[in-house]
């Protein structure tokens, strides 16, 4: 018998072994919950949320092997065997010589900023990330955006919108001098640009440029595995290379990295900073004792380090990352088919709704992305988050709002947690909010914390006319 041609679907490379019940609260309950939370989705109780797309940080479902690894935790204060398992995994898969574990990525950012930035030095990067920039500025650094211009246009379909603008970086070096550059802060799959990747050609060229000037490159490797997928898919010469091989080569062009293992490494807590320079490592290892814990646990339990080591291996499996990004694209394709304005091309970890295009009648000072996150929760109990003017904070010199060109609301997909049916529900809710967008009034901020205001700020809706 001859073969029949037809549609062939893909499926997740795992099966469900345990379930966690979800609760749907009524519209009236959601209205009360949102008001109590000051219209900030970070301040909602998780019990009042139906589908939680606030973040992919620490919200992953661990595998049976990772859960088994928890039982192998060596909780010795010093020299835990799990540290050496984690160290070996990082050295083998990422290629760095020295490892310092931390309780999460934020701890790693803090340590690196403290030891590698002198007050007044510039820290060029391919678009800011909130906590990264905050630590760099607290250390006295001056963040400077050197991402390519295409990254600021949600509709531009450049395949590597995370690339560093090498001309802009060279101009900064020429103007300020290489000695005033602390390091280049390179993010893989740039979060604030919509999860957009960096090409291998770009990081190679960046390495050559920085080597000429004696400047270090420090990598935010938090979502490097997703970046490697896009290189494999889009960049010539990589289609037959494994994800693990691409990750290793990418890291080879950098001098060190920090990681929030709560993303790619498929765990609920943990992070690390790794470097090649022994002198820099000694500073980091000494400082971690002050802020995090001994250098062989860095604020983590032994069981957490074991789960991280296993998660690193699982994250590099090609079939896993294909399914992970496939689910994000499934949601993106639904919204694109309905002509919902989102950042294109679809990134690796989230769908970013273009709140400016949703609410063309709302000026940015009325917080359209925050408004959109609130409206989605009211419509269906789905929790998203703002990535616009609230996240950008204030200019440290003028005190005025920083007004980014991108005003986005992020629908972040936790790894191995939700099904395609959940994505259908999300898409239908987004469409309903989009259909009713003309009724949105915007918000005003009534409480603003000093640091990282998007986590704890409170808002109230503007009165209807």
Would you summarize the structure shown here?
The chain is α/β, with parallel strands linked by helices and 465 residues long.
Name of the CATH architecture of the largest domain: 3-Layer(aba) Sandwich
Distance between the termini: 70 Å
How many domain modules? 2
CATH superfamily of the largest domain: Type I PLP-dependent aspartate aminotransferase-like (Major domain)
Radius of gyration: 22 Å
Count of helices?
Answer: 16
Sheet with the most strands, sense and barrel status: 5 strands, mixed
Query: What string gives the helices and strands in order?
Result: HEHHEHEHEHEHEHHEEHHHEHHEEHEHEE
CATH fold title of the largest domain? Aspartate Aminotransferase, domain 2
Instruction: Label the overall shape.
Output: globular
Class from helix and strand fractions: alpha/beta
How many distinct beta strands?
A: 14
Q: Strand content of the residues, in percent? A: 5-15%
